[in-house]
Amino acid sequence: MNTRLRGGERLEDRRLLASSGGVCNLFTDPITPEVAIAFEQTPIDIGETEPVRNRRQARIALLDTESLDFNRYSLNASVSAAIDLEDTGCKRLSHKALKTTGILVFDYQNANNFKFAGFDARRNLWIIGAKHHGKQKIYDRLYESMELDATYDLRLNVDHSTVELLSNGSSKVSHTYRALNHENPIGLGTLLPRPTRFQDIAIRDYFPLSETVADNLKVTQGVSEIIDVLANDAIAYDIEAALQLNQTDYTLGQVSIIDNQLHFEAASDVFGQEIIEYEVVDQLGRAVTGHVDITVTSAFPIEFDLDETELDSFELLSGNHSSIDSPVGSLHRLTGLELLEVGLPPDKFTMTTTVIAPPSTPHKNFGGQVVFDYQDERNYKFAGILAKKKRAVIAEVRNGRTFIWNSRRINTPGDPQYHLKLVVNGKQVQLLINDSEYISRQFAQPVTSGNIGLKGHRRGSIFGDLRLDNINQPAVALNDYHKIPVHQNVTLNYLMNLPPDVKLMSASAAQGTVRIEDDQLIYRSAAHHWGPTTVDYELLYPNGTQVSKSLPLAPGVDYPATAQLTKFGHLESDIVMNDLGFHIQGKEFFQENQYPLPLGGYENVTNFNMLFLNELLPEDFDLLMQSQSSSRADFAEESVIFDYRDQLNYKFVGINRVVRSTQSSTLVGTIVNSIFYPVNTYWHVGEVVNGEQRILKQTRRRLNLNSNLNLKLQVRDNQIAVLANGSRITSYEFSEPLNYGAIGAYSPYFDRAYHTLSVLDPNSLPDAAATNTHLAGDIWHEHSGHLEVQPDPHGFSVHILDEPFVGPRQIETYLTTVTNTEDDLANGFIIFDYVDEENFKLAGVKAGRKSMLIGEVISGHLQVLRSRDHVMFVGEEIKLLVSIDQSLVSFTVDDEAVITYDFADDDLDLPFGFATQESPAYFKNTSIG
User: Fold this and answer.
1) What is the pLDDT of residues 703-738, one digit of tens each?
2) CA-based torsion, 723, 728, 733, 737: positive or negative
3) What SS3 class is residue 877?
4) Could you say which DSSP state residue 310 is in?
5) Contacts of 669 (CB under 8 A, 6+ apart)
6) What are the residues whose beta carbons fall under 8 Å from the beta carbon of 317, sequence distance 6 or more?
7) What's the Cα-to-Cα distance from 234 to each of 70, 156, 231, rounded to whole Å?
8) With 0-12 CB in 10 A as exposed, 13-18 as middle and 19+ as buried, what is 763?
9) How far apart are alpha carbons 858 and 906 in whole angstroms?
C-alpha cells in the first residue's frame, strides 16, 4: 500500500477514507437550494451538479439565467467554510468539521472551461481565476486565516469584464479579464467534491461604488469658477451621484454647490494653495470623498517700483539685493537669487523687465535672468541674458546641474541695456529681447507649478523695471476653434456644455450675427468672413452669479473645395479684412487681417491666404496650387502652407529660387535643356516652430515652367510627396499626422502668381462647379441699410421686395457694384412684373456698351428692348430711378440719362425687386413712392 499523500490530498482525507468516509458521502456534490432569486423578484432554478469524468474535478451547479439579459450584476451566496458532518449521515465519527472550498462561477462553457472566484479554506486562501482546457490559472490570491465555524456572505460583483469578490462586505480579490461572454451561464460549486452548503442564492443589481479622481483648479484672486468634479470621477451610468459639502468656508475662498457642480469664489486678498474636500453620495446612501487642489494666483498686472520699500516683496534666497537711486528712477541690484512674493503664477502670463548697466560703469552690463517654475534651489528654470557670452538663453537647473535648452547670440546695443519679455503659455516659453530678437522652448510639462523670481550675476545685475501681466490674448491655435459651416444658422449650445438651470443672458459676435431663441444660442457667419472669430456670451446661475465666457469659432466650407483668389472690393467692414480672399461658387470669403500671437500682440497676415474648412481634413488628401505668371521669378517664395496651427507654428513647401540654366556637359544636353528644361528650381520643405523657421529638406530640379506652375502636394498621413507640372520633386516624412491644422498659401508679393487653391480627395482633379454646391445659389444679406447680393455663379440672382404696388409707382435706389468684379460683368437691375425667377422685366445698368437698358427676361434669357450708352465706373455709387405708369416704363440714371419703353400689352402691377447677373452688388437707400 502506498502511504504517501498525493498532490492536493490532506491527511484528514485519508482518515475519512479509513473511517468509511465513502459511506458517509463526504466525496459528493455541494448542497445547494433548488431556487435562487434574481433582482429581488424573479425565481430562477438551480440545476443539478454538472457531470464530470474525473471524481476529483470541480463540482458546479448552474443557474437558469437564459431569460435574463445583463452584463453587470452581483451574484450573492452564503457559504460555510467547513462541512457539517450531520448532513453527511456519518455517526461513527467524532463531531469534527473539515475545512472545504466554495466558488462562484461565471462564463461557464464546460467542465474544463470556466471562470471562478471563491475560497479554499484548507489553504486559508481567497482566489480568483479560470480553468482553460482543464488547466487552472489563478490571477489574484489573498491569504487569510479561516476558522472552522466561519460562514461567508460572498458577493461577486461583475461589471462587464471586471470582477471583484467580497466577503462579509470586505473586498478580497479582483481581476479584469480580457473578455467575458455574459451569454454563458453562471453558477456555484466547489473546486473538489465536498458537501459544501450554499444558502441564500441571489442575483442582484450591481451599483459600483463611485471612485473620485483628484481635480486641479487654478483661479485668480476675486474670480468665481465652476468646477465639474463629477466629470472626471468614475461613476457608473445608472448611479445617481450627488455632491455634498461638509465645509464651505476655506482660507482661500468659499465653496458652494450649483447644479451638482462646485462653485468656488476666490477671496480677493489672499493667494496660495488649499485642498477642498467634497463627498459623492449615490442613491444607496454610500459616500466617497474627493478633493480639489485649489491654487489662487495673484491678480495681474502687478508693477514693482523697485525702491527700498519694495524689497519686502522679494524673498532673497542667495546673495544680496538693494535699491539704487538713479536719474531714471529706482533700480534693483541683485547678486543672487530671489523670489517674488506673489504665489504661483497663472497658466499664461508675461514677465517684463529691463537689464541695464550699473550707473557707476555704464559700459558694462553683466546681464540678468528671470526665474520661473522654481521648485527648490536645485530645480528651477530661467531665461535671460548671459552678457559675458553675449547670448540670450532659456535654461533649466535640474538636480543642481544647468542645462541650456536654447540660446542665441545677440547684437549688443549701443546703449548696453536689454529689454526682456518672458511669455509663458503652459508648456511653451518665449523670450523676446529688445522686441527684435526671439528664442523659444517647449517643455515636456507645464512650467507654471513653481514660483517666479529674478537671478543676478555675482558682480551685480541691475533691473530697471519689473511687470507681471496676463497674456491678454484670445485662443491662437486653430485647433482651439470649433469648425462650423458658413452661411448657416448653427446652434452652439452643444459646444458650450452648459449645466442645467443656467440661463443665457446675452451674446455678441465680432463677425456674424448671434441671437438667443428658447435658450439656444444661434450663430450665423458674416457675409464674407471665414476663419477664426469669437462669440462672447454671459451666463446666469441659479444663485444669481453671472459669468462671462467666450466661444472660439471658425466658419468654413465643405471638403473637398476649389477656390479662386480674389481681391477685397466690398464696402468697408468694421474689422479690417485681408486684401485677398477666395472665391467659391460665386461667394467671396476673407479672413481677418491680423491674428493674435501666443507671445502677445497681433501679427499682420496679409501674406497668408488660408482655405478654411468646416471639418477635420481626412488623413489622406491632395493640395493643389495653380499659378500663372509671365515672370518665372514670381513663382519663387510662393509656398503651400499646411498643418497650420497658428501664426508661429505651421509647415510649408515651395520654390525658394528660380535660375535660368541650360548648361550641360554635352551639346545635345544643352539643346534639350534649352527646349524642355530651361530653368533650375530650388525647392525647400520646412516648418515654423514657435516662430523659428527650420528648413528640413532642399532639392534642385530642372523644370519647364512655361509661365505656369501646378504644384501638387500629396499628403498621406504623416508623409508628403511634392509634384510640379507632373514631375516628382521631393518627399518627406514628418513625425505626426498632417490633417489637424489648416491649409493655405503664402506669397510675399501683392500681385500673386497663384490663382487657384484646391484641397481634394487623393488623385482627383479640381472641379469648382462640383464642390460646395450648397453655396451655388444666390444669397442676399441685409445689414446697416444695405441689401447685398452674393450672386448665383450662373444666371440671374433675384430678390423681391415685400411691398406690392398697383397703379403709377416709382422706385429709387443707389447701386454700388463691387470693385473687384470684372468690368464686363458688373451690373445691377431693378425688376418688376415678376412672374418667377426666369420670367420678369427689368431696368438697370451693365458695364460695357449700351450700359443703360430696359429689357425682359424670358426663360432665363435677357432680351434688351431699349438701351443707350452711359459712362459707368465699377465700384462707384449710381442712382437708379424707375417710374411706371400703366404700361409705360421710364428709367433714369444719376438724374441725367433717361430711357423709356412702353409694354403696350402688359399690365405692370406686380412687386418691385432687385437682380444682378453673376455680379455682386449693393443696393441701399431704397424708397418706393
Assistant:
1) 877 778 899 999 999 999 999 988 899 999 998 899
2) positive
3) strand
4) G
5) none
6) 336, 337, 338, 339, 377, 453
7) 20, 20, 8
8) exposed
9) 14
Tell me if 223 sits within 8 A of 243, measured CB to CB.
no
Q: What is the pLDDT of residue 327?
A: 74
640 alpha-carbon distance from chain centroid:
24
For the chain, domains (ranges, CATH) are 11-204 (2.60.120.560), 215-297 (2.60.40.10), 302-469 (2.60.120.560), 478-556 (2.60.40.10), 561-772 (2.60.120.200), 777-928 (2.60.120.560)
SS3 (DSSP) at 361: coil
Largest CA distance in the chain: 134
HEC string of 3-69 equals CCCCCCCCHHHHHHHHCCCCCCCCCCCCECCCEEEECCCEEEEEEEECCCCCCCCCEEEEECCCCCC
In this structure, which amino acid lies at residue 835? V
Terminal CA-CA length for the chain: 127
The percent of the chain in helix, strand and coil, each rounded to the nearest 5, is 5, 55, 40
Note the pLDDT tens digit of each residue in 834-843.
888 899 999 9
Q: What SS3 string covers 415-443?
A: CCCEEEEEEEECCEEEEEECCCEEEEEEC
**Is the peptide bond preceding residue 301 cis, with omega within 30 degrees of 0?**
yes
Distance CA 770, CA 751 (A): 28
The answer to whether the beta carbons of residues 346 and 297 sit under 8 Å apart is yes
What CA–CA distances, in Å, run from 91 to 15, 94, 344, 367?
Answer: 15, 8, 79, 99
φ, ψ for residue 77, nearest 5 deg: -160, 150
Supply 476's cell numbers: 491662437
Residue recorded with cell 537669487: 337
Cα separations in angstroms, 209 against 163, 262, 347, 879: 13, 21, 34, 76
Give the integer Cα–Cα distance in Å for 202 and 74. Answer: 8
Task: Give the total residue count for the chain.
Answer: 929
Closest CA to 106 of 128, 124, 89: 128
Q: Quick check: 18 pLDDT over 70? A: no
∠ Cα 660 665 670 (to 5°): 45
Place of cell 462561477: 105
Distance, in Å, from the CA atom of 529 to the CA atom of 527, rounded to the nearest integer, reads 6
Give the model confidence (pLDDT) of 397-451 as tens digits: 999 999 999 998 887 666 678 899 998 988 888 898 887 788 888 898 999 999 9
The residues near 668 (Cβ < 8 Å, ≥ 6 apart) are none
For 499-558, the pLDDT digits (tens) are 778 899 999 998 889 999 988 999 999 888 998 888 999 998 887 878 888 888 999 999
Measured between alpha carbons, how far is 423 from 428 in angstroms, rounded to an integer?
A: 8
pLDDT band at 579 (very low <50, low <70, confident <90, very high): confident
Distance of CA 602 to the CA centre of its chain: 22
Please tell me the distance from the alpha carbon of residue 711 to that of residue 652, in angstroms, as a whole number.
12
Each residue's pLDDT tens digit, 159-171 = 889 999 999 989 9
Q: How far apart are CA 218 and CA 222, in angstroms?
A: 12
Long-range contacts of 889-896, Cβ-Cβ distance < 8 Å, separation of 24 or more: 889/832, 889/841, 889/843, 889/854, 891/843, 891/844, 891/852, 891/854, 893/845, 893/852
> Could you tell me whether strands 198-204 and 35-38 are parallel, antiparallel, or unpaired per DSSP bridges?
parallel
The DSSP secondary structure of 89-139, one letter per residue, reads T--SS-S---B-EEEEEEEEEETTEEEEEEEEGGGTEEEEEEEETTEEEEE
Residue that the C-alpha cell 444695405 belongs to:
786
* Residue 836 CB partners (closer than 8 Å, separation 6+): none
- The strand pair at 151-159 and 72-80 is best described as antiparallel
